[in-house]
Amino acid sequence: MSLTSLLIIVVLIVFAIGFLTKKLQVVRTKNGRVEGFNFKPLSVLFILIVAAMFQPYDLKKIEVGHKGLLINLLGDKRGASNTDVVSGIVFYNKYFQEVQEIPLDQRHIEYDKQAVVAKGGYPCDIKPSFNYSVKEANAPDMFTNLRTTYKSGGLNAIENGWLANAIIGAINDVANRYPVDYLFNNREKFESEILIEVNKRVGKWFTVTQLKSNILPPGSIRKSIEAKAKADADANTAEAQARVAKADAQRKIELAKGDSASVVIRAKAEAASIKLKQQEVTPTYVEYQRVLKWDGVMPSTVLGSGSNTLYNLK
Questions:
Q1: Would strands 206-212 and 129-134 be described as parallel, antiparallel, or unpaired?
Q2: How far apart are CA 121 and CA 188, in angstroms?
Q3: In what order do the strands lie in the sheet with 206-212?
Q4: How far is CA 267 from each of CA 138, 183, 257, 263, 264, rounded to the nearest angstrom?
Q5: Is the overall model pTM greater than 0.85, yes or no?
């Protein structure tokens, strides 16, 4: 609320109280007749209201998180060189001074799609986003240099004008240093360089953080990148499959070696067993086994005279 409005309200309240308490009377009546005026409160009220409307002073409250600037409009360079920092409630002469509030909090900005050119002339689309804040110590200098833009729309006007040109220009200059594939293969480094370049350009008055270029490759480059990514993925898959096949083949070789060893071991064991049996079996032992297995019955066969089915039983 301005000081003028406050004064007018006070004057109206005072006169309202005077009439209600009969301290102010427009006319005095006796026996129903008008005798005349003894006081002219309406004239006084009118004069006070006019005085309040044209009085030169005003007040403004500087909100928390803002930098207050009291600017002398009669100074050299139209007051640009005479700016005082103020806070709290400020009384000032509205004809010769003005008060500006500059926000100091973090502000998030997202710009619409813009075009930048990489090295070699490849155009790329970007949609930059970032946070920024006004440096408190340099707020008066910022206002002095960007006064016309600031007074036309505050920080919003600076964001869409001077600051936007600085941000887009920095991104474009950094992008133009590198070929297009570098920008996407090294995006973190690319955006880090942009942030350094941006703060070189605007760091006198603003602090820029968390900048993202959100750069998009041209359609042809995007297809090439996707094809390369697919080829790399296929190569990795083939390599993994080859490793699996090699491991499986090695496993089979080891199993075959194990089976071969088992066969050799069994063969050696059987050979040794046969050798031992051959050493133990004698002709006498064989004849003995035959006798043990004979059931005492002569074979029912027709043989010639003097034939004997038992042979060499001695």
A1: antiparallel
A2: 22
A3: 107-110, 129-134, 206-212
A4: 96, 69, 15, 6, 5
A5: no
User: Which residues are bridge partners to 126 per DSSP?
Assistant: 114
102 closest CA partner among 91, 86, 90: 86
Q: What would the DSSP string read from start to end of the chain?
A: --HHHHHHHHHHHHHHHHHHTTSS-S--EETTEE---S--HHHHHHHHHHHHHH-SEEEEE--TTEEEEEEETTSGGGGTT-EEEE-SEEEEETTTEEEEEEE-S-EEEEPPPEEEE-BTS-EEEE--EEEEEE-GGGHHHHHHHTHHHHHHHHHHHHHTTHHHHHHHHHHHHHHTTSBHHHHHHTHHHHHHHHHHHHHHHHTTTEEEEEEE---B--HHHHHHHHHHHHHHHHHHHHHHHHHHHHHHHHHHHHHHHHHHHHHHHHHHHHHHHHHHHHHH--HHHHHHHHHHH--SPPP-----TT--SS----
- Tokens linked to 263: 């066969």
- What does the block give as tokens for 73? 């409009």
- Tell me the pLDDT of the chain (314 aa) as tens digits: 576 777 777 777 776 776 666 555 545 555 555 454 445 666 666 777 777 777 777 788 888 889 999 888 876 655 555 778 888 888 878 888 888 899 999 999 999 998 888 888 888 888 999 999 999 999 999 998 998 899 889 999 999 999 999 999 999 999 999 888 788 888 889 999 999 999 999 999 999 999 999 888 766 666 666 677 777 777 888 788 878 878 777 777 777 766 666 666 776 777 666 666 666 656 666 666 666 666 666 666 555 555 555 545 44
> From CA 39, how far away is CA 130, in angstroms rounded?
67
Tokens of 314: 């001695």
